[in-house]
């Protein structure tokens, strides 16, 4: 006879576990559906360009720190040379005073005032009129020279100590800025590696096409340079077309943006400062409508500089992975102002 027992009902605990498992599966499916899609080529390019801009800004700050480091090294060396020469002079003066004491001793004894000065703590004695009254004019002159030299040496040693501290801090800052640059560049490369080979080629081709259009428009520029020096600087920059952009480079094999402008003007006999943040003060600020070939043009919060060519075009070292080239001001960055050197 067949059994008519009712089927066993699942336990409440089992139902709870199954429900939780199902809920988790639904949640994971929902999260997967809402997850951010793979960045498009345009998204990656925009992010990479921003990282390159940040790297360039960090490069300019690093170049400024490096320039400061060089100046401080020269200043410290000069002060240390002064201290060394001053110490030699002091030793000679003390030797002379010692000879004077020896002569007095041979003639019957050392002047008490001179004996005091040659003791372990002589600096206080010149301030005592009673001591000076006991000394001859020759001795007074020698002692005053020694005391003056001691004061000068103390000041120079203090100055050297402060400069060395500043130099140490500058070197620390420089190392940090260089690290910032490399961090930004590494992040940009990592982003580019998320693209396919075909997508990277498309970005490179778009960049090359834009540079080609810049060459064509630059050839149409027939404006007169702002000065003979500006014309010479622009002509020098044109000889560097095709040279690679390298962060911190000053030429002649590679450049960053301010390295190119500094080098170009140097060929015209004009000494510009090293960074974009200081080159803004190397001439007179002018507006966009006043630009003439050879003028400096600043972009993107003063972190980028180029040379104006004419017809709305500039020549510059744009960013990592590119070369010195012509480009429309619209693509070079956010225009700030021009500077006529």
Summarize the structure in short.
By secondary structure, this protein is an alpha+beta fold. It has helices at residues 12-34, 41-106, 112-117, 129-133, 137-192, 197-219, 228-238, 257-267, 276-279, 329-332, and strands at residues 284-286, 296-299, 304-310, 313-316, 325-328, 335-340.
Description:
It is a single chain. With 341 residues, the chain is an alpha+beta fold. Helix content is 61%, strand content 8%. It contains ten helices and six strands; from the N terminus they run H-H-H-H-H-H-H-H-H-E-E-E-E-E-H-E. Strands 1-6-2-3-4-5 form a six-stranded antiparallel beta sheet. The chain is elongated.
Features:
single chain, 341 residues, alpha+beta, six-stranded antiparallel beta sheet, 6 strands, 61% helix, elongated, disordered N terminus
* Spatial strand sequence of the major β-sheet: 1-6-2-3-4-5
Q: List low-pLDDT spans.
A: 1-5, 128-132
Share of β-strand residues: 5-15%
How big is the Rg? Answer: 37 Å
Mean of pLDDT: 79
């Amino acid at each position: 006879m067949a059994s008519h027992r009712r089927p066993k009902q699942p336990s409440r605990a089992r139902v709870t576990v199954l429900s939780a498992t199902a809920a988790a599966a639904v949640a994971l499916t929902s999260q997967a559906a809402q997850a951010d899609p793979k960045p498009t080529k345009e998204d990656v390019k925009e992010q990479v360009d921003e990282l390159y801009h940040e790297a360039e800004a960090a490069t300019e700050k690093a170049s400024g720190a490096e320039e400061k480091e060089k100046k401080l090294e020269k200043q410290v060396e000069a002060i240390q040379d002064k201290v060394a020469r001053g110490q030699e002079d002091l030793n000679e003066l003390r030797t002379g005073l010692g000879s004077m004491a020896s002569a007095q001793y041979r003639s019957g004894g050392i002047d008490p005032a001179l004996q005091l000065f040659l003791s372990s703590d002589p600096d206080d004695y010149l301030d005592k009129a009673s001591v000076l009254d006991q000394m001859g004019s020759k001795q007074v002159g020698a002692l005053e020279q020694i005391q003056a030299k001691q004061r000068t040496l103390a000041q120079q040693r203090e100055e050297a100590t402060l400069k060395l501290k500043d130099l140490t801090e500058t070197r620390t800052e420089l190392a940090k800025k260089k690290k910032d640059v490399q961090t930004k560049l590494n992040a940009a490369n990592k982003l580019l590696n998320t693209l396919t080979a075909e997508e990277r080629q498309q970005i490179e081709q778009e960049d090359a096409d834009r540079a080609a259009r810049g060459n064509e428009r630059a050839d149409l520029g027939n404006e007169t340079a702002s000065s003979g020096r500006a014309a010479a600087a622009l002509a020098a920059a044109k000889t560097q077309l095709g040279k690679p952009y390298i962060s911190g480079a000053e030429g002649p094999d590679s450049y960053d943006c301010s390295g190119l402008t500094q080098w170009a003007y140097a060929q015209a006999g004009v000494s510009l400062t090293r960074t974009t943040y200081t080159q803004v003060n190397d001439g007179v600020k002018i507006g966009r409508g006043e630009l003439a070939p050879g003028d400096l043009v600043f972009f993107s919060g003063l972190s980028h500089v180029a040379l104006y060519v004419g017809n709305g075009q500039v020549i510059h070292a744009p960013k990592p992975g590119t070369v010195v080239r012509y480009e429309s001001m619209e693509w070079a960055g956010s225009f700030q102002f021009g500077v006529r050197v």
